[in-house]
Design brief:
Elements (H helix, E strand, L loop, with lengths): L27 H17 L2 H8 L2 E2 L6 H20 L9 E3 L11 E3 H11 L4 H28 L8 H22 L5 H15 L5 H9 L8 H31 L17 E2 H26 L5 H4 L15 H12 L5 E4 L2 E4 H29 L15 H20 L2 H8 L3 H40 L1 E8 L5 E6 L3 H8 L24 H14 L8 H10 L40 H4 L3
Antiparallel strand pairs: 1-4, 2-3, 5-6, 7-8
Helix pairs in contact: 3-5, 3-10, 4-5, 5-6, 5-10, 6-9, 6-13, 7-8, 12-13, 12-14, 14-16
């Protein structure tokens, strides 16, 4: 059965079948928008920059969303904080509370505390906005911290992104200070206790401590100046600096181009991903509303900072159960672990290092160490090249071990900040818990470094075996001579590329002790230190498979396990990539087995 189609319409229409169709003109609204865009461009010359940004390519990987979570949480903080400023009264002046919360009616409280209660109980939706603001602030610090973990463990801080890493470290420090200033504003018992602790910390600064505390609080504690000053810092000064640094961070990402994970077709000279318009912008916009929805859901279901339960600040009823937010808890834990004998007198003055070291030194020291790490690693390794491809954490075991040791050390401090709660809930001695954490501070971080490094080295050795001998199939093949061999399934090009794409490394060598004339050559202490640190970084390096090793493994077939070519990366050119081996009895061959070997091996 067949069908035949007859032309429809008027007979004259068939005479115009070959005519070129003229596309319809733009709508009136589109012409108006285009005219407005042209008007703006004539006066700002912004079209070129906007076009560059809209055509910018961003790679697609789930870990890149961590930085977006921090950015979107910051936006939510700014919006919700702007709403709260409409009703919050930043004053320590005393008034009699007469609001909706009955248990506190008739009590004398500060205007800051009363206005926060009014926002929570009398303003429609006010409590939800407060909750969103606080949870978004916590999410911002969490997102920023985990984003820095991703950047550190993948080596995304290397040249040319050292400046961006420093900006990130400063942002993390400012975020912690901004959070402390924010939850100190309501002037409740918990925040007042935190301010009282801060005043004591400041006083431990040698020589200038008491003067500095007097200047911050505008007189004896608590005074009436601290709430307005914290409000100005929390609402104006710190947000302006954070937004400025965040903007600079994003601009540098666009200028330096985004890093990407290694894979076929991805090099230091390109970026594989989606342009901002329309794909990436649509995905980013949708992800913003997902983040906002999750924060709103958490805020609606889980109460945080219930100031009505704490009551207004009063120095007399301070209890042992007060705890700061998690990002400040580690420094509280450091205070609990420092021994008392660090307080002593010198020239008639008391020097309280048992408090100053944990409260004043540790906080900036952590972020200083984080900020300078890229420069230290660059000096130790001698790596001065640009890097746009990310490392797999296993391919840099020492850096990964250092990162895990730092996380474990911070965790010890954080858990130590709750030693009193643990002692009460678990029925244990607080002195025993404190001693356990003190010992753990020196034991657990080195142990974490060793374990992490050994795991990374084991994974690297497994990658070498996989690249050399492919994947074990479990199928046994009998050869013509009667021998039995296991068949190995060939890897795909992408799988093999990931295993062999990273650069070989080796420790730096010291220059000879004598020159060409036999005269003793003094070696600078700096050079000796660099050589020792380089040995620490690379002494156990498991380098990627060379083309010679791959060729030997493919050529021998079933006896490949016994063949190991020497580690010789020098003088290997791209034209020396091996072709598929002819194999032995029962050996697998793959015509694409040489993918990626030349581009990763350099002199």
């Amino acid at each position: 059965m067949s069908t035949e189609t007859f032309p429809t319409g008027r007979p004259a229409d068939r005479l115009r079948e070959g005519d070129t169709k003229v596309p319809p003109g733009s709508s009136a609204a589109a012409r108006k928008a285009g005219g407005m865009a042209g008007w703006i461009d004539d006066r700002t010359s912004a079209a070129k920059g906007v076009n560059y940004l809209l055509r910018k390519v961003f790679p697609d990987h789930w870990s890149f969303m961590l930085g977006e979570i921090a950015m979107y949480s910051l936006i939510i903080c700014l919006i919700s904080g702007a709403l709260l400023t409409l009703w919050f009264v930043p004053s320590a002046g005393q008034i009699v509370y007469d609001g909706s919360y009955v248990p506190l009616r008739g009590q004398t409280v500060s205007e800051a505390y009363a206005s926060t209660l009014d926002i929570s109980f009398d303003i429609p939706g006010g409590l939800l906005v407060r909750q969103i603001h606080h949870w978004a602030a916590l999410m911002f610090v969490v997102g920023l911290t985990v984003h820095m973990f991703r950047v550190f463990f993948t080596g995304a801080f290397r040249k040319p992104r050292e400046l961006n890493w420093v900006i990130g470290a400063v942002l993390a420090l400012l975020a912690a200070i901004e959070g402390f200033a924010g939850y100190s504003l309501p002037d409740d018992l918990l925040s007042g206790t935190g301010l009282r602790a801060m005043e004591g910390f400041v006083q431990t600064a040698p020589v200038i401590g008491s003067y500095l505390a007097y200047g911050i609080f505008g007189g004896p504690f608590p005074g009436e100046a601290i709430i307005p000053r914290l409000y100005s810092a929390h609402v104006l000064l710190l947000p302006a600096i954070i937004v400025g640094l965040f903007t600079a961070h994003i601009i540098l990402v666009a200028v330096n181009k985004h890093t990407q994970f290694p894979g076929p077709g991805r090099t230091n000279d390109n970026v594989v991903g989606y342009r901002v318009m329309p794909v990436y912008a649509a995905k980013a916009g949708g992800f913003f509303f997902i983040v906002f929805g999750i924060i709103a859901l958490i805020s609606a279901l889980f109460t945080i900072n219930p100031i009505w339960a704490y009551g207004p600040y009063d120095p007399s009823p301070v209890t042992a159960g007060s705890q700061p937010d998690w990002y400040m808890g580690a420094y509280d834990g450091a205070l609990r672990l420092l021994p008392g004998w660090l307080e002593f007198e010198i020239f008639g003055n008391t020097l309280s290092l048992n408090i100053a070291l944990g409260a004043l030194v540790l906080l900036p020291l952590v972020y200083i160490v984080i900020g300078v790490y890229p420069f230290v690693e660059r000096w130790v390794t001698g790596d001065t090249g640009e890097h746009h491809l990310l490392d797999r954490p296993r391919n840099n075991p020492t850096r990964t071990g250092i990162g895990m040791a730092g996380i474990v050390a911070y965790s010890v401090f954080l858990f130590a900040s709750g030693n009193d709660i643990m002692a009460i809930k678990l029925g244990m001695s607080i002195n025993d818990l404190t001693r356990f954490f003190q010992i753990g501070l020196f034991l657990f971080p080195p142990l974490a470094f060793i374990v992490t490094k050994r795991i990374c080295l084991s994974l690297q050795r497994h990658d070498r075996e996989l690249a050399l001998h492919s994947r074990e199939s479990g199928r046994i093949i009998r050869g013509a001579d009667g021998s039995f061999h296991e068949r190995h399934d060939a890897l795909t090009d992408r799988e093999r590329w990931i295993l062999v794409q990273h650069e070989p490394v080796k420790p730096l060598e010291l220059s000879p002790d004598v020159d060409e004339n036999g005269v003793a050559r003094p070696v600078a202490l700096k050079e000796r230190l660099r050589a020792k640190l380089s040995h620490f970084y690379f002494k156990d390096a498991v380098n990627p498979v060379t083309p010679a090793e791959l060729a030997a493994a493919h050529h021998d077939g079933h006896q490949a396990e016994e063949i190991e070519a020497p580690f010789d990366y020098e003088g290997i050119e791209g034209t020396q990539d091996h072709g598929p081996g002819d194999g032995g009895h029962g050996a697998d061959t793959d015509a694409d087995s040489s993918i990626g070997s030349a581009s990763r091996v350099r002199e």
